TrEMBL record, chain A:
Subcellular location per the Swiss-Prot or TrEMBL entry: Cell membrane
Organism domain of life: Bacteria
Name listed for the protein in its UniProt record: Na+/H+ antiporter MnhB subunit-related protein domain-containing protein
Primary residence: membrane
Ranges annotated as spanning the membrane: 72-88, 108-129, 135-154, 175-193, 213-233
Membrane topology: Multi-pass membrane protein
From TrEMBL, chain B:
Transmembrane segments annotated in the record for this chain: 6-23, 30-47, 53-72
Organism of origin: Streptomyces tremellae
Domain spans labelled MrpA C-terminal/MbhD: 11-76
Lineage: Bacteria, Bacillati, Actinomycetota, Actinomycetes, Kitasatosporales
Name of the protein: MrpA C-terminal/MbhD domain-containing protein
Biased composition (Gly residues): 94-113
Amino acid sequence: MSRAARLRLLAFGALGVAALLVWAYTGLPHFGQPHHPYGDRAVHAALARRTANVVSAVNFDQRAFDTMGEESILFGAVLGTVVLLRQTRDEREAPPRPALVRPAVRRYALRLLPVTLVAGLYIVAHGQLSPGGGFQGGVVVATGLHLLYIAVDYRALEKIRPRGPYELADAVGEGAYLVVGLAGFVAAGSFLANALPYGTFNSIASGGSVPLLNAAVGMEVASAVVVLLACFLDQAVEIARRPAGPGAGRRRPAPGDNGK
Amino acid sequence: MADTVIVVALLLVAAAATAAVLVRDPARQALVLSMLGLCLAVVFLVLQAPDVALSQLAVGSALTPLLLLLSVRKVRHGVRRAPRERAGARGETGKTGGTGRPGGTGDDPGGAP
């Protein structure tokens, strides 16, 4: 197909999509209008179960099954990354050298590290009360941990972040969600049913099984992100190709075909 | 008043997104992407969705750029060392400096352009 024909095809498709979008948007309710049928019902159901943060009530109570799917997607994605980014036979591990860090960067990162960790844990713990929850707080905790890599170097990070326990915690978090769901099945007859006492509105122990599922997701997400970043960091910092030699077992490319 | 804030935030998102497309160096692109994540978080915040804003802030402006930067470093690491014969055209001696290997041991198949 010639270039002009391809451009015409692209223009045809783009105009078609634009027309469909405009047509769909004219049928939407107006921006900022007061009538919210789904929102009203969700708020009502959340308050009936004494969950102050309606978004968490939707995520971990009304739509808890969807959240299980999302959690499993992250779990599967990280599992795939671990398999893909493993150390292969023609790669060797080079111990990272100590890095020189500017004093200002080190000071800033070391001061921010505890603040970020506490903020992340707070967001996880108060998921049923205030904006945030297991997912948001988990990512904050996991990325905050890596301030140590910025402040010191990779060897310091590896000391406080052994891969094994985090991989285990990832699986335990994923499994805990299932276990809470099965407990709901045993107690109330349907999977992920909110069978626990609802507690006092606007206190930490409110919302029935919402805080438990929230904590399971927080654990899973924090460990999954740590493992994910560990795979990438290992590849970027530690793992290098084995030098070509008698034992390398790898064809050396011709000098012309590697620079492109 | 509230509408003005929303419009300004949306314009910021459009500017940051356009910049992210126009910047061609992947390492710089990661930083622009981080700014885009920040602008999107502001949009979600002014539209009264703080939960989504937090997710966007954590993933869009911290995690994704970090993964991108690490991938770029890994890819360049392979490319930088391999073409020794090309008279050191890039002349970079960063943290990843060579260990005196014989040159040309190949690089990532999907190396940097």
